[in-house]
Structure formats: C-alpha cells, structure tokens
Amino acid sequence: MTGLHISILGMGLFSLLKKIGLGNGTAGLLSLMVMLQYGIFTGGSVSSMRAVCMFVLSVGAKILGRTYDILTALAVSAILLLLDSPAYLYSSSFLLSFGAVVGVAFVSPCIIKIMDIKGKAGKALAGSVAVQLSTLPIMLASFGEISIAGIVLNLAVLPTVSGVLLSGLCCSMAGFINQEAASLAAVPGRVLLWFYEKMGMLAGKLPFCTWIGGKPETWQWGIYYGLMALGIFWGMRKAEKKKKAGRGILWGLIVLAGIQLLSWQPRKGLRITCLDIGQGDGIVLEMPEKGVFLMDCGSSNKKNIAAYQLLPYLKSRGISYIDGILVSHTDNDHISGIQELMEYMTQGLTSVKAGTLMLPQWKEKPEAYQLLEKLAKEAGIQVLYMEKGNSFSCGKAKFRILAPMEGSLGDNVNEEGMVMELKFGKFKGLFTGDIGMDTEKKLLSEFSDVDFLKTAHHGSRHSTCQEFLDQVKPELAVISCSDSNTYGHPSPETTLRMKKSGVKVEYTMKNGAITLHTDGTRIWTEHFVK
C-alpha cells in the first residue's frame, strides 16, 4: 500500500507543479526530491523503494522526452534493489510487491483481451484477479492461505484509498494551523478506514472467505507459473486470430489445473509433528488417508502460540479442519494454545475449524476444564470424554485410550491425565502427557513395545522410570521443552536412563519442530532446524 501512496502522491505532485507553470525538468526534479525523502520517511520498505525507483524512471522519461515502459521500469527497479541487498530475493515483501505489479501491468491486459472484457467494472475485476493469480504461490509460501473475498474487496478499496491518503495529508497540514481543522480534515479518512474494517470483519465471517492451500514446494511454483504462461500464450494467440470459441474457458481450466497442483499436499503415511512451542507440548497428527488430530497445545513461557506457532504450521500444511483435539490434562502448558484457537474460531478470526474436543473423564472438573467445555460449545465443537478402554479409528490408524482409569476424580491432573496409544500398520506410538513414575508403574501391563514415545512431563526426573523403559522399549523419543525453562527439564537422570536403554532422544529446544514420518513399517525424522 505504501507503493501505491508514493505513486499517487508523486504523480499528483508532478502534475500540480506543471499546472502552476513549471516545466518538465523543474517539476520532475522537485517531485523526485520530495518522493525520495518520502520513501525514506516511510521506512524505506521494499514496496516503497520499488515505487520510488519506478517513479524516478517515469519522471525521467518525461524529462528526456522518452517513452515509459512499466515492465522495463520494474526490471530496472528490481536490479537496483537487488544490487543494494541481494537477500531481498528471498523476501516475501519483495516478491509480493513486484509480483503484484507484474499482475497489473502484464497479466491483467492479457486476461482482458483473452476474455474479451468490456466496461470499467469488468476490467477492474480482471485486474484484481490478475494480482491474485500472479502472487498466489508467494502468498501460499508466506502465509499458507489467501483471501478469496479480497478479490472483490479490492474493487471497493483501491478506488477510494486515495481519499484516505488525501484526508491524512490535509489533516497533517491543518495540524500546523488549527487542531479542530485537523480533526475535521481527518473525518473522511477515518470514515473510509472504518468502512474497510467493517467490510473485512463481515467478509471474515463468510464460510469460504479464505482458502487454506498450504505451502507449495519449489517445483510446484515452477509448474504453476509454467501453466499460467502457457494459458496466456495460447489465449493471446486465439485472441489475435479472433477465435472466441472456448478460449476463455480453456484458459480458465489451465489456470485451475495450476492452482490445484499448487495446493497439492501429498500424504506419505502417518506424520507426527512435535511443535517447538517453548515449555509445553503441541503435537499435530496427520493421518495416512485423511484426518488431522491435535494432541495438547500449550506453553508456560510463550504467549499467543496459536497465532504464531500452531496456526502458521496448520496453514503451511494446508490444514483447514481438525477432526479431533485431544487434551491430556488441564495444565496451562498443555491447553493455552487450544483455548486461544477456540476463541479465534468463535470470533471468526481463523478459517481453521475443529470437529471434536476430547477431554479426560474426571468426576471433579477444575476451572480450566470447565473453560475448555465452555469455549468448545461457543465454537460449535462437540465434546467427548475419554477414559481407559475407549478407542476409535481414522482410516488405517487406530487410537486406544489407556488412562485415566474409570472413576478418576481429576484432583491430580498430571497423574490422572490422558494416555494414548496410536497404531498404524506395524508402527506404534505412545503419548503420555505429564504422568509420573507411579502412574507409569500402574499402567505397565497396558504397555508394549513402541516405536515412538512422547516423553512424559518434558523429561522430568519424576517420569520415565527404568521399569517403564524396559517395558515399552522405544526406538525414538521426543522431549518438548524450552532451553530457558526454570524446571531443570530435561533432567540429566532421565536422559541418561533413556540413552542407556538404547533410545534415540530428540529435543525441540535443539532442533525446533520435529516431524516423524512412517509408512507403517519404517520411520524417519525431519528437523525444522537443520
């Protein structure tokens, strides 16, 4: 938006100076000096400096009496910025800014010609669609989602944004003279901004306002842009030959095929990701065929983990629906992110939805437990209560609840927490919440050899006893904790016991998010921090 401001202000100032009698040279130099300072004043962001560079070339062409070509100016601006800072090539703001201009300057005219669009409204819509198509892989790679409603909302925002800018300028200038006059000048801008906010809130509540497509791989980028170029080339050839029959439909089908490929997220067996959320637990289970479950999500040393850890991960994986949220117990370091997520769902602040909340069956419900029930009801999520003996399946994956015992009070949330076993093919995983040695020993008869263990209580010395390790014999165990926690997690005693038992131990505090893949026979891991 800063780039748009510079374009509007720069060309407006240049035209104003010419109208008062200044020539191209003088008007151009004065406006260039002002806009260069304005670009720096706004923070020197990529979009503002791109706009300044293009404005310099545009005015320079007028001064020299040369023709201005927007794509040439865009290329020169990119070269200049990359010479200054080559790392911009990996910046989403750089890619989005330049991609949007390519959409407006090149893709939009092609769409208009291919579709034979007439009228200002149709051309404006084509421009908005062109920007979205041109920046789609960048948006998905950066955010994992795009706003479908934004295509239409842009039609209302772009023609009126100059009014916001003009109101702000008048307010700034009037502020030097009279405060009341400045307040009055700001009214139109405030009204427009209020209108934008309400439109955004209304659009956010629509069921299909946002599409979560996931983060595409580099090869998907290449094929998408290749198909898009092919569709444009073929459509323009047909348009030049005046052949209208089916050209718009076929072009649209080619682009849709590219979008479908871009959002394709292959499922290779079962995927278990232990998120790096500081001192806490957060595990995303992606089923082999279809289905996603969340096992705990909370942190005692990080805030807003749903916004900054959980949701970005889900969106990067193209996950818009969670089949089940399992809560081992109600300590804050296991539920704070779940509470935040359900609040977002209720307020319409996320397009991610959930079907079921699964809580341990306790006779006495702590305050945090009751809050989870309340938030789930407000978000339209079904609540189920789990205890030993309960089981359910999702495709070829089978879940079995080993604890809490029937009749558990819930007065000791750690020891009476939910313990779950997950089977897929020959693979078996065990999720133990924060249970201690006493509960581990009570459940020994329920345990058998496992391939994966979510280590109890963040590696505390009061959990993962030798008898337990001798019984479950895990090949791989993950300890989720913060490197700056004050609890002494993980305990050297515990990690030593595990290593002596032949367990390969992974730590989120060292490797970031840890992802386990299995085809039901073999297992392999992937670290976020290489």
Label the overall shape.
elongated
* Rounded radius of gyration (Å): 29 Å
Helical fraction: 40-55%
Number of strands: 17
Mean pLDDT reading:
89
Question: Termini separation (Å)?
Answer: 36 Å
Computed structural class: alpha/beta
Number of helices: 18
How would a crystallographer describe the biggest sheet?
A: 8 strands, mixed
Q: What is the strand arrangement across the widest sheet?
A: 8-7-6-5-4-3-16-17
Strand content: 15-25%
Low-pLDDT ranges: none
How would you explain this protein's 3D organization?
With 530 residues, this protein is of the alpha/beta class. The protein has helices at residues 2-19, 24-41, 46-64, 70-84, 92-115, 120-143, 149-157, 161-175, 179-204, 218-240, 247-262, 305-316, 332-347, 367-378, 437-442, 466-472, 492-500, 508-511, and strands spanning 145-147, 210-212, 270-274, 280-286, 292-299, 321-326, 353-360, 382-386, 391-394, 397-403, 419-424, 427-431, 452-454, 476-479, 504-507, 514-518, 523-527. The strands form 3 sheets. It has an 8-stranded mixed β-sheet with strand order 8-7-6-5-4-3-16-17. Strands 9-10-11-12-13-14-15 form a 7-stranded mixed β-sheet. Strands 1-2 form a two-stranded antiparallel ribbon. Strand 9 (391-394) and strand 10 form a beta hairpin. Helix 7 (149-157) packs antiparallel against helix 9 and helix 12 crosses helix 13.
What's a quick, concise take on this entry?
With 530 residues, this protein is an alpha/beta fold.
Notable features of this structure?
eight-stranded mixed β-sheet; alpha/beta; 18 helices; single chain; 530 residues; seven-stranded mixed β-sheet
